[in-house]
Amino acid sequence: MKRSSGRTRDVNEALAEPLQALAGSADADSGSFDALYRRSFPRVYAYVASLLRDRAAAEDVTAQAFERAYRKRHGYRPVRGTQEAWLFGIARNAALDELRRRKRRASLESDPEDLAAPGLDDRAELALRRETVRAALDQLSPRERDLVALKFAGGLSNAEIAQTLGLSESNAGTKLHRTIEKLREACQS
Amino acid sequence: MTNLHGTPTDTALLAIDDALAAGHATATDADARELQELALALADLSPAPEEQFEQALIARAEAGFPRQPRAGLAGRFDAALTALRRGWTALSDDVRRRAGALVPSRLRRPRRPLLPVLAGAASLLAAIAVSVALLNDDEPARDGIQRAQPGSSGPALSSPSAGGDSAQSEAAPRELGRGGDATTVPEAVPPVPGPDRDEGIAPGERQRRVERTASMTLAAPEDRLDEVGSEIVEIAGRREGFVLSSELSTGDEGTTGGSFELRVPADELSPTLRDLARLGTVRSQSVSADDRTQTFVSTEDRLRTSKAERASLLKRLADADTEREAEAIRSRLDLVGGQITGLRDELRGLRERTSFAAVNVTLERGDGEGSGTSRDGVGGALDDALHTLEEALGIAIRVLAVALPLALIGLIAWLGLRALTRRRRESALD
Predict the structure, then answer these.
(1) How far apart are CA B294 and CA B197, in angstroms?
(2) In what order do the strands lie in the sheet containing B210-220?
(3) How far is CA A75 from the centre of its chain?
(4) Distance, in angstroms, between B406 CA and closest chain A CA?
(5) pLDDT tens, B337-347?
(6) Which B residues 387-426 touch A at CB under 8 Å?
(7) pTM to 2 decimals?
(8) How far apart are CA B231 and CA B361, in angstroms?
C-alpha cells in the first residue's frame, strides 16, 4: 500500500487509541485496526475486485467491508481465527451481498498497469501469459474463482482460507489444489 | 521448495506458497515449477486499488467512518443516536480503562457487544415478570388457603352473626343482630317475607353489600401462646376492629390454645390476615365472601312499605268514626310498628356484617416450625433467612422455567436466521 508516512501517522493517531482493543496477538501495534488496515487493504481490494470484476463496485464493497470491520471490531474473537480471516470473511460477505444484489457479473473496466516495467519482449510474453490465465479463470465456477481470489489476490494462507470459508484446513487445501490443477489444464488446452 | 515428502496435494501447495513468498519460481522439478509460475501469474493478475480511492478511504477511516447524514427528522434522530453512542462509548471506555488498570491483563476479557446484553436483560426481565405473575396465581392454592368468591357456593365459614338468613328471618320470635335488643313480634303478625337468596342478585346495584368471613388456625410454641394471644388482640385494634370474644385454654402445662372472634373493617381483612399470619405457623386458613346486596335491597323495600302502611293507618286512625274502628286500626298499627322495628334491626345487622368482616382465629400449640417473623433471636433470624432463601430459590426456578425455553427458542431462531442468510449469500456463487 502506498501511503505517506505523515498520512500513516494521522491514521495511527486517529485510530490507535480506541482500536487497541482489537488485540489478536501479543503485539499491540499489529493488533490495532490501523495495522490490520495497512496490512490488508490492497489485498482486500484485490480479492473483492477479483470476485466482482467491477472496479467501481469493488471500491464500494471494500470501503463497506472496512467500515463494517471498524464498527464490529470489538466482536473479533482471536479463538475463531486470525484478524485477516475475520476481515476477509466480512469482505466476502459484503461482496456476496453485492453479487446477489446485482445478479450479474461485470468484467473489470481495465487491468492495472504492471508495477515492474519489463522490457518490450518480456511485456508481450507477459501479456500473452496473463490473457491465457484470465481465459482459464473464466472456465472456473464462481466458487472456484472465489477460492483462487482468496489465495492469490487476498494472499491468505490455507488455514486462513479455511477459517474464512468455514472449512477444515485439509478440505480447503484439497479444494485449492484441485482448482489449481483444473486451471493448469485449462491453460495448457 | 521446503518439503517434498508430503502428499501430492501438500507438496503442490507448499511449492505454491514458496513461490509466492519468494516472488519467483524456486522449484527445480518441471511440474512444480509450472505450478509455481501459474501461481505467480495468478498473483500478478490481482488488481491494485487506485490512489484516489485509497486516499478517500483513509480520510473516512480517520474520521471514524462517519455515517451518511440523512435529511429531516431521520437525520436528527441519527445525530442524537450518534451522540448517545459516543457518550456511551466514552463512558464505557473510561470505566473499562480504570477497571483494566486494576485487573491483570490475562484476566481481561474482550469487549462484548451491547445488543446481546440488552437482549438478554430484556428476556430476563420478561421471564421475571411472567414468573412473578405465575407465582401470584399460585399463592391462593398454597398453605391450605381457600378463598370463596362473592355469591359462590364454595365452603364458607359460618359465623354466629352471618348464618342462615332465611331461617332467621322466618323465625318468630326472631332475634335480630348480635348483642342487639331482642325484638319480639307477636304471633298474630303475618310473617314478614324473608329475604330469599333465590330472589335474585340485584344486578343494577352499584354499591354491593358483601359479607366477608375468614378463619385461621395458627400454631405457636407453647411458651409464646400468651404473647401471640395478646398480639391478636393488638392487631384487631390496630386495624380499627375489635374483639367480639376471646378464649385462652389453660391446662396443667400452662396455656394450651385459644380462640378469638374478631371484627375488622371489611377493607382491612387482607392486611389483618397478613398480620396474623406473621404471628406463627398458619395451619389452615379460609376466606369466604357472600354478596348480600339483594337481601339488603329487599329489606329496605319492605321497610319503606311498612312505613307507608303506618302512615296510612295513622291517617285512617285520625279519620276513624267509631271507637271500634279506631281500636282495630291501633291494633294494626302495633303490628306494623313491630315490623318496622324488626326490619330496622335487620338492616342494621346487615350493615354491620357487610362493613365488618368476621375473623375467627384458633390458636394451637405448635413446635414452632416455620413460625412468623416476630420470633426474636438468632434462631428466628436463621428461620427468616432460610425462608427468604427458599422463596428466592422458588422465584429463581420459576424464572429459569420461563427463561430457558425463551432462550432456546431465541437460539434456534438465531441459528436458523444465520443459516438462511449464509445460504442466501452463498447462492450468489451458484
Answers:
(1) 8
(2) B145-147, B281-291, B210-220, B356-365, B254-265, B242-251
(3) 21
(4) 24
(5) 999 999 999 99
(6) 424-426
(7) 0.49
(8) 12
Let me know if B255 is exposed, middle or buried by CB neighbors in 10 A (0-12, 13-18, 19+): buried
For residues B100 and B85, give the distance between their C-alpha atoms in angstroms, rounded to a whole number. 21
Strand partners, B261: B245, B360
Interface residue of B33, B54, B115 to substitute, partner A, most A CBs within 10 Å = B54
Of B233, B334, B232, B332, give the one whose Cα is nearest residue B277. Answer: B232
- C-alpha angle with apex A145: A143 to A146, nearest 5 degrees? 60
Cell of B346: 335487620
Residue A128 CB contacts under 8 Å (≥ 6 apart), including other chains: none
Residue found under cell 378463598: B147
Looking up cell 491468505, which residue turns up? Answer: A156
Asked if the model's pLDDT at residue B96 lies above 60, the reply is: yes
Measured in whole angstroms, the distance separating CA B231 from the mean position of its chain's CA atoms is 29
Question: What distance in Å separates the CA atoms of residue A76 and residue A89, rounded to the nearest whole number?
Answer: 11
Q: Which helix H or strand E contains A165, and what residues bound it?
A: helix A158-165
Average pLDDT score over chain B: 77
For A131, counting Cβ atoms within 10 Å of its Cβ (0-12 exposed, 13-18 middle, 19+ buried), the class is: exposed
Which has the closest alpha carbon to A180: B168, B32, B214? B32
Name residues whose C-beta falls within 8 Å of residue B412's C-beta, 6 or more positions apart in sequence: none
How distant is the Cα of B37 from the closest Cα of chain A, in angstroms?
Answer: 10
Of B64, B65, B424, the CB nearest to A100: B424
C-alpha cell of residue B248: 385462652
Q: What is the dihedral of CA A55, A61, A62, A64, to 10 degrees?
A: 150
